[in-house]
Amino acid sequence: MFLLIWTTVFLSGISADTGASVWGQQHCPQQGYCVTLSEGELTAEAGLCVVIPCSVTTIFTPRHVIWSKCKTAEETLWDSNRIFHTNKSQSVQSEFRGRVSLLEPDVSQRNCSIMINDLRESDSGFYQLRVEGSKQSEAFTFASKAAVTVKGLSQKPTVVIPPLTAGQQTTLTCTAPGLCSGSAPKFTWSWRGKTTAYKSEETQRHTSALTFNPLPKHHSTSVTCTVSFRGDITTEETQTVNVSYVKEVQITGSRNVTEGETLSLTCSVESFPPSLITWAKMSESDLQEDTDTFTQDQRTGALSIYNVTAEDSGQYVCTATHLNKTHKMRNVTVTVICEYTTLCF
Ligand SMILES: *[C@@H]1O[C@H](CO)[C@@H](O)[C@H](O)[C@H]1NC(C)=O
Ligand SMILES: *[C@@H]1O[C@H](CO)[C@@H](O)[C@H](O)[C@H]1NC(C)=O
Ligand SMILES: *[C@@H]1O[C@H](CO)[C@@H](O)[C@H](O)[C@H]1NC(C)=O
Ligand SMILES: *[C@@H]1O[C@H](CO)[C@@H](O)[C@H](O)[C@H]1NC(C)=O
Ligand SMILES: *[C@@H]1O[C@H](CO)[C@@H](O)[C@H](O)[C@H]1NC(C)=O
Ligand SMILES: *[C@@H]1O[C@H](CO)[C@@H](O)[C@H](O)[C@H]1NC(C)=O
Ligand SMILES: *[C@@H]1O[C@H](CO)[C@@H](O)[C@H](O)[C@H]1NC(C)=O
């Protein structure tokens, strides 16, 4: 008994290692009649599609392929539960009409694989095959069935957001899960829960593109793409967008400072990502980048000069460097007011 279990584990290990290219086992209920269906259960999600792989061998040349759906593995009822017939004049269950197709339209290829689109959870069941030839006597119903389970839709759309820069038109894309040939899904884009007025279009059957001009106000807001499949089946994906932008430089603090006191100025700029802020003092001739004479903080933009003297009067320039390439400047004139000495003037 132990040996038997061990052998089973060992063999299944081998088939996993070799990649298990075999998708099913052939069943030959009668000489000359064989069918290969997937072993085990096929699982799929509502709104998407499923392929039931199938290949068949018959003594006669197949002319028609017929599929039926049974609720249990034992049930066999032919005409009432038919879901597909290659002869379009033959009736099929109304709920399957137009949703089932053969992967290989040439029936004589003995490839009986079908795809069922716009899946519903009620499509779960056992699918059974019948093959008919050109003569009345040429027909065979296979007892083997392919088990299909359809679960609620859990896959989400894929939203792709390129790096966004304020003022530069851009396109976001949303791709629906599944690649089925059934009804094309519907796309809805929204910002913070409100349907957007920006233009979107389906660039492909399963992809929607939203084109817009990003603004600073879009930074750190959320965009949602909702995909609706036939039968009120929806799925959505939300992402937070980052927009790189830089606004105008602002300087705060008193420009007039009494000799001996501290000059405190703050330079700030609203931007994403944060900018680096540097202060420099203008001399008569040119801009001094000599920052030894005062302390500054590149993140907060604070400039402090303790114990100011008349020499500290003049023009100070604040430069905000954004993303290493955009430089925004603003200058301020500082006046040191003399109270204690006459050296000021
Ligand atoms: C399809 O079915 C109709 C109705 O039974 C029949 O008259 C017709 O001959 C069939 N066509 C083929 C190609 O088998
Ligand atoms: C059936 O045909 C489809 C489409 O050509 C193909 O992808 C699939 O592999 C075929 N299946 C078999 C069992 O030959
Ligand atoms: C947005 O920026 C934040 C902070 O820099 C970062 O953590 C996040 O991953 C960014 N989001 C996207 C979608 O790029
Ligand atoms: C600074 O002083 C100048 C004259 O010295 C005056 O015109 C200006 O209004 C003062 N500015 C502030 C903010 O006090
Ligand atoms: C301020 O500067 C003056 C002139 O350079 C100096 O005499 C004084 O000691 C300084 N005061 C402080 C508190 O550093
Ligand atoms: C900015 O540019 C300098 C020199 O070109 C480079 O060394 C540095 O890595 C850059 N920084 C960023 C954040 O791109
Ligand atoms: C300083 O700023 C003013 C306006 O804010 C501008 O007119 C002037 O040209 C600037 N000076 C320098 C040297 O950048």
Overview of this structure, please?
There is one protein chain. This protein has 345 residues and is mainly beta. The chain folds into three domains: 136 residues, Immunoglobulins (Immunoglobulin-like), CATH 2.60.40.10; 87 residues, Immunoglobulin-like (Sandwich), CATH 2.60.40.10; 91 residues, Sandwich (Immunoglobulin-like), CATH 2.60.40.10. Helices cover 5% and strands 48% of the residues. It contains one helix and 29 strands. Strands 3-11-10-6-7 form a five-stranded mixed beta sheet, with no helix packed on it. It has a five-stranded mixed beta sheet with strand order 13-21-23-27-26, with no helix packed on it. The chain is rod-shaped and about 120 Å long. One 2-acetamido-2-deoxy-beta-D-glucopyranose binds next to loops.
Topology of this structure?
Elements lengths: L1 H16 L6 E7 L2 E6 L3 E4 L4 E3 L1 E4 L6 E7 L11 E4 L14 E3 L11 E3 L8 E8 L6 E13 L6 E3 L3 E2 L4 E6 L10 E6 L2 E2 L4 E5 L2 E6 L9 E8 L3 E8 L2 E10 L3 E3 L4 E10 L3 E7 L4 E2 L6 E2 L5 E4 L8 E9 L3 E12 L8
Bound molecules: 2-acetamido-2-deoxy-beta-D-glucopyranose (7 copies).
The site of one 2-acetamido-2-deoxy-beta-D-glucopyranose has 4 residues, from strand 20.
